[in-house]
Amino acid sequence: MSQDIVILAAGKGSRMKSAFSKVLHKVGGIAMVRRVLATANTLPESKLHLVVGYQGEQVEANCQDFSANVVWQNDPRGTGDALRRVAPFLQENGATLTLYGDVPLIRASTLQKMSALSNPETLVLLTISLDNPTGYGRIVRDEQGHVTAIVEQKDATEPQLAIKEVNTGILLAPNKHLQGWLAELTNNNAQGEYYLTDVIAMAARDGVKIVTVNPENEAEVAGVNDRVQLAALERELQSQQAITLMQNGATLLDPSRIDVRGELLTGNDVVIDVNCVFEGKVTLGSGVEIGPNCHLKNCTVGDNTIIKSNTLIEESDVGQYCDIGPFARLRPGTKLSNKAKIGNFVETKKAIIGEGSKVNHLSYIGDTKMGANVNVGAGTITCNYDGVNKHLTQVADNVFIGSNSSLVAPVQVAEGATIAAGSTITKQVGEKQLAFARARQTNKDNWSKPVKK
Ligand code: UD1
Ligand code: CA
To answer: Are residues 268 and 200 in the same domain?
Structure first.
């Protein structure tokens, strides 16, 4: 059956104490509402509707790529009111699934279980039993166990408050009936709001079957109202992701000390030491080892590469069998060919480093094209910036650059050339040439040391 999916994101979220809409706060590096949209998008035959209000322009701008139908609710008057605003856009047949922008960890598998039970004469409710049901709408059942209503905490009687089965808020209702029910909603309740949950009692009255589904885990239906709950869901998601990584063949030396803020793909036998952070999309080939305290953002790392502790890699591609760090910084546009080595306190940026080339200590290599088997001595700097423009340094295969050299770009060093230590290279160096570009040493005989006056 085709589905309309409505994602509610109009609320103010005042307990976040934030200038940003609550649903734009991130869990696992991704805005909560984007997680919900992405999950909704995996369901077949679905049309997405996004209800925005408070900071709605921000929400709309951040979710444009999902091409959802954005519906404005400038003065939120309850979840039922939100659905009413979407009503004109709902398909005639099919059913409507209601999700929440601040309930980010709902799983597609749970929603599929709900869809499987959906039909024009059935309403599907996602419920859960909680030891402490405080704050939630209670599921009221008759003697036969049929759901007859949902009663909000603030409207519940003493016996109803004792009910442990609660409404997660997520429900799937047949459009054929939903339109009429929404039109019937009133706000005669403790909060003066239009409650979407009132449609349950209407469904029971109209003889529509009400069935319930439970989520696989409690975190799926946990909402975020403040930053304490945001942090709790962050930990929950991180531990779920760590389990998936281990199941996929990665060794995590401590699964509670890894943070994946985005998507991390790993080959077999990847080993990740403690306190590593992965952001955006990161791909690690088989046999990759990552030492403690590394931070990798939007990069790919080839098979069997070793990244030692305290290394930062951003927007870069690293080949196979490379050796990086400790304390290396690969900035955007770095491309390492296989077997390249980048050692401690080396910074690279827009640098192409050929196969087997080594930059082992204390260097800055920026805007550089370097061939294979180049040896860059300690403290070598590419002077890529003249104060106005950036220029390219080109170093061909088999070049040897002595320690503490400066390569003033634009400059080329041809195949097999050698640069003497301490040189400042401003002119092209030819094939197999040795370039000295430093003052000659002078030694004075019988030098008498100064004496203290
Ligand atoms: C709702 C349910 C309750 C359930 C609980 C689960 C209703 C009446 N109650 O209560 O049964 O146990 O969720 O968390 O549905 N929103 C809008 N527009 C509005 C009102 C709300 O977009 O006019 C959004 C809010 O931003 C929020 C979500 O809908 O993300 C839930 O609204 P909220 O007012 O927090 O409902 P609850 O009182 O939590
Ligand atoms: Ca809520």
So the answer is: no
Is the per-residue pLDDT at 307 higher than 80? yes
Q: How far apart are the CA of 9 and the centre of ligand 1, in A?
A: 10
CATH code assigned at 47: 3.90.550.10
* Per-residue pLDDT tens over the stretch 55-81: 999 999 999 999 999 999 999 999 999
What are the angstrom distances between the C-alpha of 311 and each of 134, 289, 291, 294, 409? 46, 12, 8, 5, 27
Distance CA 318, CA 407 (A): 24
Pair 141, 148: CB distance under 8 Å = yes
Are 389 and 314 part of one and the same domain? yes
Shared-domain flag, residues 180 and 240: no
Instruction: Check if 361 is active-site.
Output: yes
Active-site residue, from 25, 49, 177, 361:
361
Alpha-carbon torsion (80, 85, 86, 92), positive or negative: positive
**Is the link from the previous residue into 326 a cis peptide, with omega within 30 of 0?**
yes
Q: Distance (Å, rounded) from C-alpha 71 to C-alpha 214?
A: 29
For 111-147, letters b (16+ CB in 10 Å) and e give bebbbeebeeebbbbbbbeeeebeebbbbbeeeeeeb
pTM over 0.90: yes
Q: How many percent of the chain have pLDDT more than 90?
A: 98
Name the β-bridge partners of 327.
none
Q: Indicate the top mutation candidate among 72, 79, 187 to test ligand 1's pocket, ranked by most ligand atoms within 8 A of CB.
A: 79
Say whether both 41 and 176 belong to one domain.
yes
Q: Which amino acid is at 56?
A: G
307 and 257: one domain? yes
What's the 120 CA to ligand 1 centre distance in angstroms? 25
How far apart are alpha carbons 54 and 49 in whole angstroms?
16
Q: Is the pLDDT of residue 1 over 90?
A: no
Q: What is the pLDDT of residues 272-287, one digit of tens each?
A: 999 999 999 999 999 9
Instruction: Please tell me the distance from the alpha carbon of residue 73 to that of residue 15, in angstroms, as a whole number.
Output: 20
Domain region containing 282: 227-435
Q: Are residues 284 and 204 in the same domain?
A: no
d(CA 34, CA 95): 22
Judgement on whether residues 107 and 193 belong to the same structural domain of the protein? yes
